Structures are given as structure tokens and as C-alpha cells.
């Protein structure tokens, strides 16, 4: 079983635009479908309810790790935390990293999520599978978002 998800997409937008879509918590919420309560700041957490239909009862909670302007944005979270009856707070978090690099078309965005090997054995396969397909969808969402705004 793989323990790391990687997605790569070339976006037809300058790095500054992609950076803003990733790191402005309101813009992030638009394409990611979450209503975050506070801005992203390294070392701090922010959370909010998912706005994607059927998942509005779920809260997303992230702890920002790094923000290197127009290069790297990363946070940790509890992947696949979709059962409101389960307390995920004692589980390890995975690390989500967005890396940006300039390309002839605009920006290459690489998403990496690592740390699945630390999850409980009974949750690891579903969390990995769910996030793998979820990130495929989110890469399309950010592509559409930066093209429209």
C-alpha cells in the first residue's frame, strides 16, 4: 500500500494568482468547498464546516505548517475524518504540501499528502483511497477557479 499521494497540474495562471487561491482562506474555501473561520498562519489552526453538498455536517480542521510565499504552503489534518461520531483528535495527522513552480503556461502545482503509514490500520486504506480521489477532484476545482477569477 502506498503511503503518499502526489498530484501535479499545470495551471494557466501566474504563480501569484495560484498562491492567493491557496493561501487566502476565503479563496481556498471557494474552490475547496469549506467555510474556514480564520486566515492561514504558520503554527496556527483554522477550521470550518464543509460546504460540499452532503458533507455540510463535517468540520475541516488544519494546522498550518509552512507558508513560503509563492513556493510552498503546507498544513496537517486528519484525513478521511468523515464520521461525526468518531473523535479523530488522538490520531496522527497527515501532511499536505502545495508546491508551486513557474512554467511557460503559468504555474505547475504539485500536491503531496504524506504520513498515511501512521494512521490506524483499520482506517488507512479508506483514508488513502478517499483522499487520492478527493485530491484529483480538488486539482480540477482549483484549475477551474483560477481560470475564472
Walk me through this protein's architecture:
By secondary structure, the chain is of the alpha+beta class. It has a single domain (4-148), classed as START domain (Alpha-D-Glucose-1,6-Bisphosphate, Chain A, domain 4), CATH 3.30.530. 28% of the residues lie in helices and 34% in strands. It is built from three helices and seven strands, in the order E-H-H-E-E-E-E-E-E-H. The protein has helices spanning 15-23, 25-32, 124-148, and strands spanning 4-11, 34-36, 45-50, 59-68, 72-77, 94-102, 107-114. Strands 1-7-6-5-4-3-2 form a seven-stranded antiparallel β-sheet. The mean pLDDT is 96.
Which residues form runs of ≥5 with pLDDT under 50? Answer: none
CATH superfamily: START domain
The count of strands amounts to 7
Strand content: 25-35%
Give short descriptive properties of this protein:
149 residues; alpha+beta; Alpha-D-Glucose-1,6-Bisphosphate, Chain A, domain 4; 3 helices; 7 strands
Amino acid at each position: 500500500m502506498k503511503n503518499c499521494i502526489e498530484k501535479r497540474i499545470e495551471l494557466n495562471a501566474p504563480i501569484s494568482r495560484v498562491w492567493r487561491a491557496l493561501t487566502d482562506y476565503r479563496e481556498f474555501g471557494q474552490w475547496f468547498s469549506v467555510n474556514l473561520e480564520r486566515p492561514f498562519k504558520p503554527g496556527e489552526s483554522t477550521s470550518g464546516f464543509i460546504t460540499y453538498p452532503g458533507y455540510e455536517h463535517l468540520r475541516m480542521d488544519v494546522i498550518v505548517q509552512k507558508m513560503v510565499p509563492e513556493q510552498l504552503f503546507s498544513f496537517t489534518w486528519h484525513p478521511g475524518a468523515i464520521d461525526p461520531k468518531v473523535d479523530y483528535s488522538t490520531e496522527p495527522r497527515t501532511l499536505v504540501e502545495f508546491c508551486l513552480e513557474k512554467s511557460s503556461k503559468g504555474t505547475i502545482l504539485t500536491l503531496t499528502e504524506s504520513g498515511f503509514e501512521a494512521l490506524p490500520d483499520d482506517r488507512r486504506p479508506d483514508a488513502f483511497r478517499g483522499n487520492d480521489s478527493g485530491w484529483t477532484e480538488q486539482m480540477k476545482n482549483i484549475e477551474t477557479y483560477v481560470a475564472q477569477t
